[in-house]
């Protein structure tokens, strides 16, 4: 592995920012939305992420609960003059996310970003299908705004284990047992995008996993496939299933890989992954998820290399 070169220069404008918490609110049983305010934050687009220092900015390095910054997708960015509000969605899984979940309005948080290569909108394809699950939803939610502004006809497909683990706001008009894309999910409705929801236990929307629902949609609408680009983010088993459904039906798909990352800037090599490369004698090469990704085309990913630990509990989200 060592002899193969990784990474490419990351020319995206980024920086370190001291942000202030303006809101930290629960969205469902496991997810929270953290809104951070920053001055002079650079331009960013969906698929890009922040490395967040999970201890107070004035703590000496190493004195807080977590030494290494943690990566989080940017889930929205609102600008008012030189002030930006950055939305993050998080699920508590360890010390860093627990620290973030405990922040109060006015607390300060240091972030590095925006990092990574974002989703790319294809000017030649009029349809955009957004597929997300779990903590992969933030870039998908933000992408809804971008595909709307690019005049794409979009549909959102969102999966969760159960209704109480879905971090979305449902409006009264939403048919909770509906199995087709429909209006009534606030975050997508504001951009005119219908949503199909599925839950593993059938407590909301279609019964089953979202990749299966999405594959069924692809099969029911073969005439649309060449016109569409799929954007997906979620746990790797979920994205893999979405990507395989797309690749098997020749549908263009971009995936945002959430590999373990330590530096987020191409230095530590912790996020190395194997990517297909026809120019390489072995047919593949190493790439860094943090600087070459996190967004890749689905056909580039060597899915067999995905860590089985992410599938350990057999649960997609
Ligand atoms: C590009 C990118 C974007 C991300 N966006 C989000 C987001 O929007 N919201 C969100 O909640 N999380 C997101 N994550 C995952 C998030 O970075 C981890 O949950 C976080 O680093 C865990 O930190 P911790 O200190 O709480 O847990 P740790 O104590 O570091 O880990 C707790 C457990 O979580 C596992 N874990 C840690 N990091 C990851 C990871 N990257 N992938 C899979 N398992 C992991 C560990 O193996 C361990 O079992 C993203 C990750 C990446 C790489
Ligand atoms: S996270 Fe350090 S090189 Fe990618």
Note down, in words, how this protein is organized.
With 317 residues, the chain is of the alpha/beta class. The chain folds into 2 domains: 15-115, Translation factors (Elongation Factor Tu (Ef-tu), domain 3, Beta Barrel); 127-258 and 294-311, 3-Layer(aba) Sandwich (Rossmann fold), CATH 3.40.50. Helix content is 15%, strand content 31%. The chain has 5 helices and 16 strands. The protein has helices at 95-101, 137-149, 186-189, 210-220, 236-248, and strands spanning 15-26, 31-39, 49-53, 70-73, 76-80, 83-91, 108-115, 127-133, 153-160, 195-199, 206-207, 228-233, 252-256, 272-276, 284-288, 295-297. The strands form 3 sheets. It has a 7-stranded antiparallel β-sheet. Strands 11-10-9-8-12-13-16 form a 7-stranded mixed β-sheet, sandwiched between helices. It has a two-stranded antiparallel sheet with strand order 14-15. A hairpin with a 4-residue loop joins strand 1 and strand 2. Helix 4 (210-220) packs parallel to helix 5 (236-248). The longest helix is centred in the middle third of the chain and has 13 residues, at 137-149. The chain is globular, with a radius of gyration of 19 Å. It starts with 14 loop residues before the first strand and ends in a 20-residue tail after the last strand. The model is unreliable at 1-10 (pLDDT under 50). FE2/S2 (inorganic) cluster binds at residues 261-264, 266-271, 288, 290.
């Amino acid at each position: 592995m060592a002899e193969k070169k990784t990474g490419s220069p990351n020319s995206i404008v980024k920086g370190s920012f001291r942000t202030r918490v303006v809101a930290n609110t629960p969205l469902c049983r496991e997810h929270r939305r953290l809104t951070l305010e920053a001055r002079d934050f650079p331009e960013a687009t969906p698929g890009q992420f922040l490395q967040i220092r999970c201890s107070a900015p004035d703590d000496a390095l190493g004195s807080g609960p977590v030494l290494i910054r943690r990566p989080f997708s940017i889930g929205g960015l609102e600008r008012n003059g030189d002030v930006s509000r950055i939305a993050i969605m998080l699920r508590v899984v360890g010390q860093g996310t627990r620290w973030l979940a405990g922040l109060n309005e006015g607390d300060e948080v240091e972030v590095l970003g925006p990092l990574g290569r974002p989703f790319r909108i294809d000017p030649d394809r009029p349809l955009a299908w957004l597929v997300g699950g779990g903590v992969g939803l933030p870039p998908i939610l933000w992408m809804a705004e971008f595909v709307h502004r690019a005049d794409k006809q979009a549909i959102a497909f969102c999966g969760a284990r159960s209704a109480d683990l879905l971090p979305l706001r449902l409006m009264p008009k939403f048919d909770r047992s509906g199995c087709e894309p429909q209006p009534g999910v606030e975050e997508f409705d504001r951009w005119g995008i219908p949503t199909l929801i599925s839950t593993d236990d059938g407590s909301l929307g279609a019964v089953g996993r979202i990749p299966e629902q999405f594959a069924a949609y692809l099969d029911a609408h073969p005439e649309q496939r060449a016109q569409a680009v799929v954007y997906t983010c979620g746990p790797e088993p979920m994205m893999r299933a979405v990507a395989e459904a797309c690749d098997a039906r020749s549908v263009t798909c971009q995936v945002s890989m959430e590999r373990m990352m330590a530096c987020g800037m191409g230095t530590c090599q912790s996020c190395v992954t194997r990517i297909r490369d026809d120019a390489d004698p072995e047919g593949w090469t190493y790439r860094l998820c943090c600087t070459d990704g996190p967004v890749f085309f689905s056909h580039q990913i060597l899915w067999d290399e995905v860590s089985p630990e992410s599938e350990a509990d057999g649960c997609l989200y």
